[in-house]
């Protein structure tokens, strides 16, 4: 048992000993045969592996086999020079077979074998290993990031991530070792040439000086020994070189080389038939061996016809199987929906849903790089920190009925927005002051409606130099999706979300929840208040302050709109931070006359408060608001209308029918430390 466990170490020590200890011809023959067998096993192993890592010990095997060949070369040289050219039956047989009675021709053939081994196979394998090692090391950071992205998105487990990292590390170490190990094969080929020259020249001198042989006898004896010794070492070296090239050129696959060749080389039977016709045409040339040519043409043509027939039969079988599966599916589908509970399962709608054309699927698919899903996760985290609410899961689907480059965003089953991007292109947005035009496909940015152009990767750098804002296609989709979600988040806040938020706040302040919900404000009214805040983009992260405000005013006020106004005033620091730039805020004030008209038009009924204003007055107010915004758009990017606290809610309801994104604030919603700059006034009369 101890010998078996240490057999590799004993073998290496024994090989080193061969360099020093003279070996008898019988044992040397046995070791030559062992060397050839070992090289053949390695060559066949490389043909049946699916990937390089399945034979990760190959660099070490390369070292051991090279050392063995050199040791045997030294031992055989010792016998050739000291034993009158006699170094065993293996060397004599190889030498006589190749020489064929003509030493000059045989030696030339031997030299050609060494040149092919050294220049073609060994040099090529060395270069491939060097390039593979460099590319593998360069690709490691990207592969590591891909693993981290898949792990963060939940597509793989921790164990799978560890295994993939281990495989990447092993692959890098393997190609790095192969880059150095191929130098051994190259050195072995050089050493074989030197040893062959030494055997021939030194053996000839020894034979004529010490043995008294004639020049003819010397060339006959020592040429056989030289060529035989060289071939016995070069045949295993050739197999090892081929195995080296096989490993470094072998890409990861689901099957071995034999199966890949059979599947890929014979996948186009028409090619075989065309090749058969081309080869058969060679028989028309006078003097060509017609029998051999026609025989090969018949073999290739018959193989091609056979493969075509098998492919047709396979297609027919697949069509029959497909029809059978469809029939079984229809039958099983009918049986499945006989249960009425299963029908209820298909009538639900997803809160957020995105549909993609088939050209966009590789870009957003989870198995690609996970970048799209990762960015959704990051947006969910950031949105929760900013707004205090968690967006629901975004359901991704493919849709073969839409444009291949198009995507659709749905909220609760209904289409809200759609856009179109070009995979592999970048969107260049002109900031407005650019004077250098660029070539590209004109388009409109879907999220903000800005004019832009789709440019190729080659044009990207030039567009940036000219001052364009360049965005990749995936970022365009993500930006559009996030803006749609922000605008419609108030529609996505469900009763279940409210319960989750209350449970979360109960962990730190259970008293405030128990006092207000549902004793003072019901769950339904609390949801309406939060929806009102989200509709105007007010964060609801400070739930404690919101609940305290409702506890203070909810006992006397039951109108959810008015309660929302009190909550907004409590959250004035949050609102101020959202809309101010530094220590000042630029606003457009509302004239007292308009405020009086709105207050006098407010009517109450059992459903709440509504405005009863003459349509012509409404039109005049809207026109004056639009006029002021257009006049001041060079000063402020986003207009803010400032009103008195009691008028804000009514004016917002009035104007949102025409300008949904217009921000309306009251004096009580701006922190007292902020300077208010009135840059315009909305009046009915100039």
TrEMBL record:
Membrane topology: Multi-pass membrane protein
Keyword Membrane part of the UniProt annotation: yes
Any one cellular-component term (Gene Ontology): plasma membrane
Residues passing through the membrane, by range: 7-24, 30-49, 61-81, 101-121, 189-211, 231-253, 265-285, 291-308
Biological processes annotated in GO: bacterial-type flagellum assembly; protein secretion
PROSITE patterns: FHIPEP
Keywords: Bacterial flagellum biogenesis, Bacterial flagellum protein export, Cell membrane, Cell projection, Cilium, Flagellum, Membrane, Protein transport, Transmembrane, Transmembrane helix, Transport
Main location: membrane
Coiled-coil positions: none
Family: Belongs to the FHIPEP (flagella/HR/invasion proteins export pore) family.
Name used for this protein in its record: Flagellar biosynthesis protein FlhA
Organism, as annotated: Acetobacterium paludosum
